[in-house]
Amino acid sequence: MFFRAYASGSIHDFQKRLLDNMLRLKDETGLSELAVPVGIFLVLDRHNGGNDVGDELIRRFNLLDAESRDVIDFFFLGWARPQGDSAPLTFNLAAFQSSRDALHAAGIGDFGGYADLFLFDAWLRGDRIVLDFEKALHIDLAEAIAAKRFASIGGFLEGLVRAAHALRQDAALQSGAIIRISDKLGLATAKQSVLDFFLDKWGKVIGATSLLPLATRRVGPAVDLADI
């Protein structure tokens, strides 16, 4: 069963889940090149130095899982459900540190220290899966809340969900193949960046006067999934 939010205990688990999703999309679509949007959350728990922002994100994990509208996959690195899908999330500091170190070694941007979100496109190109951090979005959520770029984590996640829903509606109405929603997996696929479409919808949802910048920038190199 494919959930839209994953509690990925380790970077290896992230690799396996994303690889499986992409290969299934390849089989379903018959495409040798496609892109899907991916989000990585780096969130510390309270016991290991986290704050209210991280607490709220984890409390809302199930909401994000249920309502991201099958458009974008979110991975919470260092978090797991060892007792099954209905159990509370648990934090593993060693898994979190190894995941963060693996991203850092691959040249991915800095961790703010409490709760960060990286949004980027994952590309299937032939037999390779490439994570495009050349054009990505990095949000230090604790800093953004402190600077009042958005009022609350709840409002931030609601904007994500509404943007995903708007993108899904657009994909359903399109007569071309710019974006499509996988029949079996529920993921957006395209031959060009899905993240650009998603950020456009998100910007319209939160309004032009928002102080939250939604422009992509380079947060690291394009990285082969197998090399992380």
Description:
α6 (153-173) packs across α7. The strands form 3 sheets. The chain has a 6-stranded mixed sheet, sandwiched between helices. A two-stranded antiparallel ribbon has the order 4-5. It has one domain (5-227). With 228 residues, the chain is of the alpha+beta class. It contains 7 helices and 10 strands. β8 (180-181) and β9 (188-189) form a beta hairpin. Helix content is 38%, strand content 24%.
Strand proportion, as a percent range, falls in 15-25%
Order of helices and strands: EHEHHEEEHEEHHEEHE
What is the domain total for the residues? 1
**Radius of gyration, CA atoms, in whole angstroms:** 16 Å
Indicate the low-confidence ranges by residue numbers. Answer: none
Going across the biggest sheet, name each strand in turn. Answer: 1-3-2-6-7-10
Q: First CA to last CA: what distance?
A: 25 Å
Q: What composes the largest sheet?
A: 6 strands, mixed
What is the typical, i.e. mean, pLDDT? 84
How many individual β-strands? 10
- Helix tally equals 7
Helical content stands at: 25-40%
Structural class per helix/strand content? alpha+beta
Shape: globular
Topology diagram in text:
Layout: E1 5-8, H1 11-29, E2 33-43, H2 52-59, H3 61-67, E3 73-77, E4 79-80, E5 90-91, H4 93-105, E6 115-125, E7 128-140, H5 141-146, H6 153-173, E8 180-181, E9 188-189, H7 194-206, E10 222-224
Parallel strand pairs: 1-3, 2-3
Antiparallel strand pairs: 2-6, 4-5, 6-7, 7-10, 8-9
Helix pairs in contact: 6-7
